[in-house]
Amino acid sequence: MNSDTGIKLPFSEDAERGLISSLLLGGEKVAVEITVPKEAFYIPAHQLLWETLNDLLIEKRPLEFVMVKHRLIQLSQLEEIGVAYLDSLYSFVPTWENYRYYVELVLDKWRMRKAMLGLHKIAARLQDPGTDTFKELRGDIEDSLIKMISDEKPGEVDTKEFTMRWLDDLATRKERLAKDGIAFGIVGLDTTVGMQQPGELTIIGSATSSGKSMLAYQGIVYNSLVKKLPVGLVSLEMTALQTWDRLASHIERISMTHFRDGEFSETEFENLYKASMKIMTQMPFYFCRGRLNIDRVQSWARRMKARHGIKLLVVDYLQRVDVRKEMQRHSRQEQVSYISNALKDLALELNIVIWCPVQLNKEFEVRESSTIQFDADIAIRLVLDKESDVHGQIIFDKNRQGQKATNLPITIKGWFQTIEERPINRSANAHY
């Protein structure tokens, strides 16, 4: 029973003992297959022992009785666990090979405890809301619910453990990025900025109607349809119908003029059907629209991460994101700065890439706040050439993990919602 709440919390002592016993017998064979935080154990002695055993494995030491006992003595923890109890764990299960059963049971009970305690806190908040209305509380409630079902936990990084994880990641990074790295699908652009990795915020700037959303939507199609990565889009400017028009135009190269007048040829109707089937059956794509504040954007993104494991979130576009009521007394510059910082924090929290188109003024500077670029890991601008509606260049203002680059010439084919790299003799992008 939790002494703070009086709630009887579920746990399985046998499952906790079975998992620890499996680790003692199987050692590295078990450890490399599972990720169980010490908090998943309800019994305090089990938490201490689980942490100690994992430390020994990181140090490449055997989990023999004498070795474990000696380490517990060094940590002044042997008395809490007991020599006889430690000894009994080595024979509690006949084989370590059933460890997955114990893992699932331990984690299941832990998730139940988190949910019960989380619901208790929500009920207490609703009983004493203070001056907040339910509409104002809703975002906090949604965040609490998401955290209840998440196994992620913030906190300091264990240096030894993370160094080993880092080396493992380096060994497989090329293959992982080829599979899971976020890209635009434009060779020259992707070569310059590299595969975008979780935690990064990318700013796509341009003046009005100069291709910022077009580039983002083209990237949505590339990542979800070609790479099969789950992508979420928060549209603060266009309706769902307008969004689907743009996606289909790019996927099947159907002129946007025909979407506006509704006159399609027989071939185009066939292509529209092909586009619809690709969107419905081949693209892990999730959509939300409306005039949302940053709290609602965060809540929706957390739900999509928990439900669908999104790898990329597109927020179109930054200056149309609202702030909560208490922030509205501040200047718009302060509000935009707050939103930009919140998006960067969200990318780190959810371990995803976020793309955010932003509006530029006539001097090609970010409207309202220059801090947008400070928060970004990558900042690019689309600028049309003088006296041209189709030719322009991508300017690389910031590339935190890479070097400065020369401008990338592009052609904007607005009628097909497609941006292509120039010169034309480079390898053309694959048709979806």
Describe the fold and architecture.
- The chain contains 17 helices and nine strands.
- The model is unreliable at 426-430 (pLDDT under 50).
- The chain is of the alpha/beta class and 432 residues long.
- Strands 3-2-4-5-1-6-7-8-9 form a nine-stranded mixed β-sheet, sandwiched between helices.
- Helix content is 50%, strand content 12%.
- The protein has helices at residues 13-26, 28-31, 44-58, 65-74, 78-81, 83-89, 99-127, 134-148, 159-180, 187-193, 212-226, 240-252, 256-261, 266-281, 294-308, 332-350, 371-375, and strands spanning 201-206, 231-235, 285-289, 312-316, 353-359, 378-384, 391-399, 408-413, 418-421.
- It has two domains: 13-112, Orthogonal Bundle (DNAb Helicase, Chain A), CATH 1.10.860.10; 176-421, P-loop containing nucleotide triphosphate hydrolases (Rossmann fold, 3-Layer(aba) Sandwich).
- Strand 8 and strand 9 (418-421) form a beta hairpin.
- Helix 1 runs parallel beside helix 3, helix 8 packs parallel to helix 15 (294-308) and helix 15 packs parallel to helix 16 (332-350).
- It starts with 12 loop residues before the first helix and ends in an 11-residue tail after the last strand.
- It is elongated and about 85 Å long.
